[in-house]
Design a protein that fits this description.
The protein is mainly beta. It is built from two helices and 79 strands.
Length: 882
């Protein structure tokens, strides 16, 4: 008997059981819940709980284990109580279990799992085994690598439960031969020397192995792409690979990094081809072993257009051709301003490259795209400029101001003589004609029909439209006349006597048949006019201008265009901006004002000496030259005695931005100080633009000269700036003295067929050969007769292309500046352009061909077999005698 433990008889236990049974019966079915009593409402009793499976096994990190609990009652019935039992794990460090009987392994060991209900328990056992590594695979299994190269290895483990995992960062890496290669804890191997070594990865006593060999055992450099074909403007990325090695030196035709002639290649293998078509060899060499190398060839196919830029008249055509070499597929597609086939506003282009310009001025881009390689293109800039067949629309015939009319089919050196050629008719006018006559064919005159018209303007502010085909006084006809206002009397203050009205040459817009001219009107005094060339109907805008400056005539820091100025230079119309440019000269400063041709609104303004004085733009009536491909303006400024040299652009060649009228570049002679002291204007003459010669020694040039008799050949891309004496020097291409007599230049030269023509003050007519590939490019050619007096002459030239060249100019030696009405007649001269032998002059036939009263700075206009000569009193027409 156990001490202190009470003992009970069978009778007493039976009595207690009966008493408890009666008590439960008296409480009814709701008295005790099924979860708190081993008996049910039906009187059955929970006797046991079984847990399945009774034993289970898993691994660390392995699968979970689902346990089930089944209750057995006193009547032998059973019930699944998995969801109602209370589950516990005796050792949660080994495994945990949730309320649904799902056990999760945590660490190796064994733990009882218990399901309890109403004081009754069932127990099972869960054993968690450590997960065993069964194998390790190292990748790559075999690697080849140069000394100094690297190779990344990885390790993958397979466990006893069939699962796998990347164990690259937990294995122990070993290179069997450290003299051949080393390896880091992360599996990055680095080559040390030639040879081979095993690479091992070990985890949990299991080892995986790979083999690492020096590259000389079989690996090679691979370069890609192989033998590509590219365009000259198309870069090509090359790559070289060597197992485990990525550092290479690159060569083009055995030149490290290449060169401009064979193409260049970066350290990363990016090849930039040269502009010239051809084939080249690309080589990649190991930076640590020069014997490890690979090469491939690259072919650059040639892709060019017939010319990089061109000009064309409105609505005219221009044929472009695309040339592709190296590749067999030479087909291209064409676009204008990015639109396939072009458009009505930009112009259209056919499948064969025939461009048809729109009827408006402007710049456009022609693009050809290779059908074989759509990334390869070639482009050309085309400018629809202000020209029309047989027309003379602007000073000295075109924007380059070369003075050459190349469509003359009637006048030749054989028929221009005093027997066959002479004065046909004279149109009287009401004032001096300083402006060069302009000519437009086929003008639709109301009530008359289509007529060829010559236009002149006078110092009396009058504009005339004459029948250009008059061959006698009986056939002369004036189509219209406009007197714009009262001119301004200025005496001979600046060499103009007796009054100033329309002094400069207008410009005519071929696309709108509008003439733009500048007039001084009493009460204005400056106006820009737009006239309909068919009727003379016009409208105007007053021209004013103010810029910031500190010059002596500035007021409150502002310099204003004054009414003391003369507007002597011809007007210019840019096809790039569609603006009218108006230069001013004979006043305190040089000015250029720009006006929109459609609205007549001022768009830009320039003063070349806002903080000084001088820089006048007069050029003996010349006009700004315009580069039709860029729109840049080129002109030459003058000087007055005592003007400050350092405060602006006195005596300078200027290149102006067409949109802002800012100075892009300039050249000032090194002796500018002495030019100022002696009033030796550079700007007494005007410059021309030589034809562009891409690839030549001197491809882009402007030429002009002034009162010191020097002809300057100036590089338009680097004009030379100002390097004054002493010590300084002119950084120009060439300085050519015109030589002979009083050699002041008051003219714009003529250029034709490789020859420059000048006729300077008190000098003979002279010509110079021009070759942009020679050094120097300008060399003396021919000298003619006779000598002209004051101011010399500005010539014009007629030719049929490159043949039948005739130089025409006007001898105004008998002009009397003090009393213009007392002047003698002008004399028209014609010279054979090949040798300057005189062919004709208007004094050879007695009084038959006598011209009107002489004036200075006049320029003849030649077209359609006629020569139009402006004078102080009349417009004279010369041509073949009937």
């Amino acid at each position: 008997m156990i001490p202190n433990r009470p003992s009970y008889s069978v009778a007493s236990i039976a009595a207690a059981s009966l008493s408890l049974s009666l008590m439960l019966s008296s409480l009814g079915c709701g008295g005790v819940s099924s979860n708190s009593s081993p008996s049910s409402s039906s009187g059955k009793t929970l006797t046991s709980i079984s847990v399945m499976p009774p034993t289970a096994n898993t691994t660390v990190g392995g699968a979970t284990q689902q346990f089930k609990a089944t209750a057995t009652y006193s009547d032998n019935s059973t019930t699944d109580v998995t969801s109602t039992a209370t589950w516990t794990s005796a050792h949660t460090s080994v495994a945990t279990i949730n309320s649904s009987g799902v056990a999760t392994p945590v660490s190796a060991g064994s733990s009882p799992i218990t399901a309890a209900l109403s004081g009754v328990q069932g127990i099972a056992t869960l054993t968690v085994a450590a997960k065993a590594v069964s194998s390790i695979v190292v990748s790559p299994a075999t690697a080849n690598m140069a000394p100094g190269g690297t190779q990344q290895f990885s390790a993958k483990a397979t466990y006893s439960d069939g699962t796998t995992a990347d164990v690259s960062s937990t294995v122990t890496w070993v290179a069997g031969a450290p003299a051949v290669a080393t390896i880091t804890a992360s599996g990055l191997a680095t080559g040390v020397a030639q040879g081979s070594t095993p690479i091992t990865a070990t985890l949990g006593g299991i080892t995986g192995t790979a083999n690492l060999n020096d590259v000389t055992t079989g690996a090679t450099v691979v370069i890609s792409p192989t033998t590509p074909v590219i365009g000259s403007s198309q870069a090509q990325q090359f790559t070289a690979t060597l197992q485990g090695f990525t550092s290479f030196n690159w060569f083009v035709d055995n030149i490290a990094g290449g060169s401009t002639t064979v193409g260049t290649i970066s350290s990363a293998g990016l090849y930039t081809p040269p502009s010239k078509a051809g084939s080249h060899t690309i080589t990649a060499t190991s930076t640590t072993d020069s014997s490890l190398t690979a090469s491939t060839s690259v072919s650059i196919f040639g892709f060019t257009l017939s010319y990089p830029s061109a000009t064309v008249a409105p609505s005219a055509t221009e044929l472009f051709t695309a040339t592709i070499t190296v590749i067999p597929n030479t087909a291209v597609t064409w676009s204008v301003d990015g639109t396939a086939g072009g458009s009505s506003t930009a112009g259209t282009i056919s499948a064969t490259g025939l461009y048809t310009a729109p009827g408006t001025l402007g710049q456009h881009t022609i693009t050809a795209t290779s059908s074989a390689d759509p990334t390869a293109t070639a482009s050309a800039a085309i400018t629809v400029n202000n020209q029309s067949a047989t027309a003379v629309l602007t000073y000295h015939n075109d924007d380059a101001r070369d003075g050459a009319f190349l469509e003359e089919v009637i006048l030749t050196p054989n028929n221009v003589n005093s027997t066959q050629f002479g004065k046909l008719a004279s149109y009287p006018v009401d004032g001096q004609i300083y402006a060069q006559p302009l000519y437009v064919p086929n003008v639709s005159i109301p009530g008359v029909g289509l007529r060829n018209v010559v236009f002149v303007e006078t110092q009396n502010d009058s504009v005339y439209a004459f029948d250009a085909d008059a061959t006698s006084p009986q056939t002369m006809q004036r189509f219209w006349f406009q007197h714009l206002g009262t001119s301004v009397p200025k005496g001979d203050v600046s060499g103009v006597n007796p009054n100033v009205g329309i002094l400069s040459t207008p410009v005519i817009d071929a696309t709108t048949n509008t003439m733009y001219l500048f007039a001084e009107i009493q009460g204005g005094p400056f106006y820009l006019y737009a006239l309909d060339i068919a009727t003379g109907a016009n409208h105007r805008v007053q021209v004013t201008g103010t810029v910031s400056g500190t010059a002596s005539d500035s007021i409150n820091g502002q310099v204003t265009l004054g009414d003391d100025c003369y507007q002597r230079m011809g007007l210019a119309l840019s096809p790039v901006t569609n603006w009218i440019y108006i230069p001013f000269g004979s006043c305190n400063h040089g000015w250029v004002l720009a006006y929109d041709k459609a609205t007549l609104q001022q768009k830009a303004i320039f003063n070349d000496t806002p903080d000084g004085a001088g820089g006048g733009l007069w050029a003996s009536g010349g006009a700004p030259a315009i580069d039709d491909t860029t729109g840049d303006l080129y002109l030459m400024s003058g000087v007055d005695p005592g003007d400050p040299v350092s405060n602006g652009f006195n005596d300078s060649f200027l290149r102006l931005d067409p949109n802002k009228l800012t100075v892009l570049d300039f050249f000032t002679p090194d002796n500018n100080m002495s030019l100022v002291q002696t009033d030796t204007d550079l700007g007494s003459g005007s410059n021309i633009l030589m034809p562009a010669s891409p690839g030549a020694l001197y491809p882009y040039v402007t030429i002009g000269g002034g009162k010191d008799g020097n002809i300057f050949v100036v590089d338009r891309t680097n004009m030379g700036g100002y390097l004054p004496l002493p010590g300084g020097t002119n950084k120009v291409i060439q300085t050519q003295s015109i030589g002979g007599g009083l050699d002041n230049i008051f003219s714009t030269p003529v250029y034709w067929n490789g020859t420059i023509y000048y006729h300077s003050n008190n000098n003979l007519p002279r010509s110079y050969h021009w070759n942009p590939n020679n050094n120097p490019p300008l060399t003396p050619a021919s000298i003619g007769n006779p000598t002209y007096g004051m101011h010399g002459a500005t010539a014009s030239l007629s030719a049929q292309g490159t043949t039948n060249g005739i130089v025409w100019d006007i001898d105004n030696s008998r002009y009397d500046g003090n009393t213009p009405s007392s002047s003698g007649p002008s004399v028209l001269h014609a010279y054979d352009a090949t040798n300057l032998n005189e062919l004709y002059n208007s004094a050879q036939a007695g009084s038959r061909d006598t011209a009107g009263t002489a004036l200075k700075f006049t320029v003849p206009t030649i077209t359609g077999g006629k020569v139009y000569v402006p004078t102080s009193t009349e417009l004279d027409i010369y041509g073949p005698l009937l």
